[in-house]
Specification:
Blueprint (H helix, E strand, L loop, with lengths): L34 E5 H4 L5 E8 L10 E2 L4 E7 L3 E4 L2 E4 L5 E4 L8 E3 L6 E8 L5 E4 L4 E5 L5 E4 L7
Antiparallel strand pairs: 1-2, 2-9, 3-10, 4-7, 4-9, 5-6, 5-8, 10-11, 11-12
Amino acid sequence: MNSPVTPVAIAASDAPPRVTPSNYPEPFASMMVGREKKPLGDLFGLSNFGVNLTRLAPGAMSALRHAHSRQDEFIYILSGHPVLRTDAGETPLSPGMCAGFRSGTENGHQLINPTGSEVVYLEVGDRTADDTVSYPDVDLKAITADNGTRAFVHKDGTPY
């Protein structure tokens, strides 16, 4: 049996997109239309953190507004002009800008693309186990087990 070959380097734009565009349950998965993630870190077998090259079509959003209990996140805008939504309000971003989201703050964050042009950014996050993700604007919560699997539940804990 052949093991997958890990590349030494690639052109990030040539990386294959995620097979499943979103693992949110419905009706939330359908809200991710226009978002494409290319998991760059996975191509190199990285296990401590993930790196995605993410594209947002006009009108698309990065995710539901969310906050992690244990995982940090970082974004770097490569092209386009998204708007960062946090508890502090909306912040316009442009190429070369970056933002970080420390775990445990409960400050929900999300990128939206209100423009008529594509947005492309790098997204970096750690893979700390036992992470819980809260979604302040909807009835959704995500729980990550030690083995890395994520389960979505309602805020009262009932499964989707």
